[in-house]
Amino acid sequence: MLKIGVLGAGHLGKIHLRLLNQSSKYELVGFYDPFEENAIKIEAEFGYKKFDSIAALISAVDVVDIVTPTLSHHDCALEAIKAGKHVFLEKPISNTVEEAEEIIELAKKHNVKGQVGHVERFNPAFIAVKDQIQNPMFIETHRLAEFNPRGTDVPVVLDLMIHDIDAILSVVKSKVKSINASGVSVISDSPDIANARIEFENGCVANITSSRISMKNMRKSRFFQKDAYISVDYLDKICEVVKMKDAPEIPGDFDMILQNAEGIKKQIYFDNPNVNANNAILDELETFADAINNDTTPIVTLEDGTEALRVAYQIIDCFNK
Fold it and tell me: Which stretches make up the Gfo/Idh/MocA-like oxidoreductase N-terminal domain (predicted)?
């Protein structure tokens, strides 16, 4: 069983601590949090061992789970990797692409594995249809959230949109050709609403909208490809697949048939895959344990996290043009 420690015991850090404590694949050794009052409270309430320094925690574990503010990801990761420890980094992987690339190179040098916490890859609705998403040519996503002061220190692109950027990059097997985007600051110093249009070299276009000042929460993606439409609702964890095939010569009474101007008939049919309930955060952490134990590639690699961050910053750069 892998020994793991958590750096950062804020809102998300406490969730990681609880899940790791339940996991059959990790032994939770303890945590470090720089806010002593918070650390003492968590140790007293939950019984997790509190470490007095980052170095002390790193030396006691095999895996370091970094759930600190993004600005400190780079320094924490480098300290852990130099000590020969595997690292799980919450998204975004780091504050800058240059920092992320340094993390990648150091992980290769010290022969340790890393994974980035792009949790929507483990959303059961996305898992249920991801193998059916084949060469999409148009993608539309909406990620809307009600206002929450937590996270407003960064643009909405890094806070929310990066989830969809990563999911899109995971299914579009083509390089980014061009990006156009606009963002509006409403209540924060950085944009609270953003829209981006990403064009890929293979002709695919992705239209992504994110907002953190909406009246309701929404996390939906729609993938359009030849003969199929696939929708994913990350929030309600449901999905739908609508496909088209050549119509039968003698349609049934309830068959849905479309005929184009050339007289070609297509039948519409619905395929709603089973969505198996899971805890996405626990799954991402435990699949990382599997990657370490089996010496396989993590599902969301450090390179994946870096590419999502690179595209995110290209979108942010468009705001200043």
Answer: 2-118
